Amino acid sequence: MKALFDASSILMAIRRYGSRAYEVLRGSYTISLALYKVGNAVWKESTLLGTLSVVEAKDVLKAAYALIERMNIVAPRDPILVLTVAHELRTTFYDSAYVVAASENHLTLITEDKKLARKVNKEAKRLAELLGEEPRVLSLDQLQEPG
Known about the structure:
The protein has about 150 residues and is mainly alpha-helical. It is built from 8 helices and 5 strands. The chain has a 3-stranded parallel beta sheet.
């Protein structure tokens, strides 16, 4: 299965699989925004929540950027469609960009964002009308573990 990973699943893969995360992400896709979403999540964990030290945050960010650089980067082709999907799902423009980019490239969206996944699944029929196909969304847990 060809998949587009959002920032939450990229970070989860790093946490869960460590140096083997590339096995999960090899040949997969993301959007360039993932770099910044990962960076923001790591900053939040280290600066606001204190769940990561600055040294740990730098290590996680370094690993994430190295992985993302090896992924296929795609972008949604139609920002108006992204806005329309954001309106329909009542979610952020950037989360909708993942949904649209995955659909436009016939990819399954991999996300740990349960709220986004629930909205996509709930509005699957309406999204199919907008996107031309029913979106597919899974979590990292629903993928087969690397060998």
